[in-house]
Design brief:
Shape: elongated
Structural class: mainly beta
Largest sheet: 10 strands, antiparallel
Radius of gyration: 22 Å
Low-confidence stretches: none
Number of strands: 10
Mean pLDDT: 84
Strand content: over 45%
């Protein structure tokens, strides 16, 4: 989960638009965000209850979105999301997270959300004035990198280990 992001000063930018006079084509947009925090449930890293939660600062957050139209009707919205950041509890650990091909299936203002989706885990309660979206996503990647510490040694000492 991520929260507290603000769209950067450049705002959302249109990077391509192929919509013709008949209203058919696509529009590509990119949005970068500043700030924010992330949260990961520790149960993703071990048996339930064995690992605590992980939080940290978001250092990069980007959403690239394609809107597809057919004869003036919006037919689909797909997004690719990229997030990176540093963990609070281990300042040397870094997360990279990406969602590819997230297809929007509902957004606030389009009536009731589909019944087969679980409720949001945040403040969105499906009443007017709240915000939220539901997506189907096929491809999610998360990578956590934590460099290992090293000890000072000499080339001679390393050679001695193998004699």
């Amino acid at each position: 989960r991520g929260w507290g992001r603000k769209i950067d000063a450049a705002g959302t930018g249109e990077i391509a638009n192929t919509v013709d006079d008949y209203g058919t084509g696509y529009g590509d947009y990119v949005t970068n965000y500043d700030g924010g925090r992330f949260w990961i449930d520790g149960n993703h890293f071990g048996p339930p209850g064995s690992v605590s939660e992980f939080t940290g600062d978001i250092t990069y957050y980007n959403v690239a979105t394609r809107f597809n139209w057919l004869l003036g009707v919006l037919t689909s919205v797909e997004s690719n999301v990229t997030l990176s950041g540093w963990f609070d509890t281990c300042e040397c650990c870094f997360i990279e997270f990406a969602i590819a091909n997230a297809t929007r299936v509902w957004i606030e203002g389009e009536g009731a959300p589909p019944a087969q989706y679980p409720p949001f885990i945040c403040d969105v309660d499906f009443t007017p004035g709240t915000t939220g979206e539901l997506h189907d996503a096929c491809c999610i990647m998360a990578r956590v990198s934590c460099p290992n510490s090293t000890e000072e040694t000499s080339w001679g000492a390393i050679k001695e280990m193998y004699r």
